[in-house]
User: What shape does this take?
Amino acid sequence: MTWLFAFGMLAASAVLLWCTLWSRRPFVVLTVAALCTLTSIHRFMHGAWLLGVLEAVWAVFAIRHWLRLTSGVPVKS
Assistant: This one.
């Protein structure tokens, strides 16, 4: 097992775990954004550019959601 494979497995597993905990808590949403960023980095390092872009989009989506949660703007369910 290479370090790149281990890094990818760890990042992807963490994203799945934290996505199951996705809630209205800002900490959880920010953690999902960070983990999606790590997974995106892994995809780019591995050469899977399309999946890297997809993970980066999810990271941006999570950051925008986190900004809405912390700004006091009501979030739709």
Remarks:
- Residues 27-70 form one domain.
- The two ends are 41 Å apart (CA to CA).
- The mean pLDDT is 85.
- The longest helix spans residues 49-71.
